[in-house]
Design a protein that fits this description.
α3 links the parallel β7 (109-114) and β8. This protein has 147 residues and is an alpha/beta fold. The protein has helices at 17-33, 88-100, 120-132, and strands spanning 2-4, 11-13, 49-50, 63-68, 74-76, 79-81, 109-114, 137-140, 143-144. It has a five-stranded mixed sheet with strand order 6-5-4-7-8, covered by helices on one side. A two-stranded antiparallel ribbon has the order 1-2. It folds into two domains: 2-33, no CATH class; 49-144, Nucleotidyltransferase, domain 5 (2-Layer Sandwich), CATH 3.30.420.270.
Length: 147
């Protein structure tokens, strides 16, 4: 970038290399500290440990995360709902949004994070509610047990 002085003398150049370097370093720093995988997790839900638990090979293209607390409440889209059947209106809204994008609810993956002390019947009821709304793919989350 050159500036001409008003006196008609020489020109002044600004070296942009340090500014570009700092911008790159800041961008890299924020990419390292930002953790998207934890965005959908609630600290009230402590996952069960399993020796069969393995990290997914690839991230789901259209994930919908539902969490079940110890008491059987369902956490969806930041809302705590008393029973699994109360999730149906939210799932119908998700299905409508997917259809507007030209996708099918069968393309979405429901990720269920159940508390380790949650009753199995609550998880099964939640899966039935999701199937009623037209969702077909499910993933259950667990912690990988250290052997």
């Amino acid at each position: 970038m050159k500036f001409k002085s008003r006196s008609g003398g020489g020109s002044v150049e600004i070296d942009m290399t340090p500014m570009i370097d700092i911008c790159f370093q800041l961008l890299t720093f924020f990419c390292f500290i930002l953790n998207f995988s934890g965005a959908e997790q609630d600290e009230r839900v402590q996952l069960p440990a399993s020796t069969l638990a393995k990290p997914p090979e690839k991230a789901a293209e259209t994930p919908i995360t539902l969490q079940v607390t110890r008491e059987g409440r369902v956490i969806a889209v930041g809302q705590t709902l008393p029973t699994p059947s109360d999730v149906l209106p939210l799932l119908n809204l998700e299905r409508t949004l997917l259809e507007q994008k030209g996708q099918s609810p069968a393309d979405a993956t429901i990720i269920i994070r159940g508390h380790r002390d949650a009753k199995t019947g609550v998880i099964q009821e939640l899966i039935k509610v999701c199937q009623t709304a037209g969702f077909e793919k499910f993933t259950l989350r667990a912690k990988e047990e250290q052997s």
